[in-house]
Amino acid sequence: MTEFVRTAIHHHLGVITLDRPKALNSLSLAMVRSITQALLAWRNDPAIRAVLIHSSSERAFCAGGDIRFFHDAGSATPRGDSALLEDFFTEEYALNHLIHFYPKPYIAIMDGIVMGGGMGVAQGGESNRLRIVTERTKMAMPEVNIGLFPDVGGSYFLSRAPGQLGTYLGVTGEVIGAADALYAGLADVFVPASELATLLGLLATATDVRAAAAEFAAPFKTQIDPAASKLAAQHASIDRHFAHDSVSTITASLADDGDAFAQNTLAVMQKRSPLMMCVTLSQLRQGAAMSVADCLRMERTMVRRSFESGEVLEGIRSVVIDKDNTPNWNPPSLEAVDDAMIARFFEPAWPAYAHPLRDLA
């Protein structure tokens, strides 16, 4: 359908293939539109029983949104006032909503890197979804590392992970593997990467694709034990430290814990944006009591405020543009973050009747 998204129909299975390997399938606006177009076309087509989304590359399912584009568009004058940037986030979040409530089985093969926007096109839905991980899966919501927050519905799916696991993943931006993803409820089944081609062939002819995939994956359960994951081993520690409702209190709790995991976690957090860790914590606490649509509407407002603040532009500059990995966070420390700075990210950017996602149900 576009240069970087291919679609096909195999028997009764609609297949979306992300094919931008040089950029690790980072999503552009054109890619978001192509995926949306395919899903809308197949939604009411009786010939399509299910949809599968995967990558043409073993390196990545999708590494997120195209953050170089974010930087270029967000650096326009006045800051953040770019029509294409506005369109990207509005349409991406609308796509996340479409996937979450898609009426047909939706299967995501999360092989390789799955981060940010990649999570948004994989985590949607509940009753109809099937999220497959492999031994190559590297999953994260790492937005605090670039001065942003875990969007694409992260308010919803991270806040519903067991205990404080979602808080830990959102505030630290840490990367996890297949066992951790299964343990945290961010994946459903494990299939070895070497078996994916066989699985695709099976699903193309299966009457019940979710049942067929689950049955296919059953023999591989012993290869990945969620109970042996890092998150499982540190669950009690994570719950104890990340149950606090301020990042300063979380870091103080970690600092008082001499355990290697606590000290390593503290060291990671000292590299993240102090402001955006605080914003993320507030976001996840609020999202726990909100619907999918309301979470996405909140995040759409937060994105507008993020580009106004400029923190995300500095984060992307340090990671992608100059690649010096020395962001000048503003403010530079947790002690300098106040409640008004955090609250600004949640202040309405539009009247309710004019919100770009006002029609999400």
TrEMBL record:
Keyword Hydrolase: yes
Protein origin, superkingdom: Bacteria
UniProt keyword annotations, A-Z: Hydrolase, Isomerase
SUPFAM superfamilies for this protein: ClpP/crotonase
One example GO MF annotation: 3-hydroxyisobutyryl-CoA hydrolase activity
Domain Enoyl-CoA hydratase/isomerase residues, every copy: 14-346
One GO term of the biological process aspect: L-valine catabolic process
Entry keyword NADP: no
InterPro entries with a match to the protein in the record: ClpP/crotonase-like_dom_sf, ECH_dom, HIBYL-CoA-H
Cited PANTHER family: 3-HYDROXYISOBUTYRYL-COA HYDROLASE (PTHR43176:SF6), 3-HYDROXYISOBUTYRYL-COA HYDROLASE-RELATED (PTHR43176)
Species the sequence originates in: Noviherbaspirillum saxi
Entry protein name: Enoyl-CoA hydratase/isomerase family protein
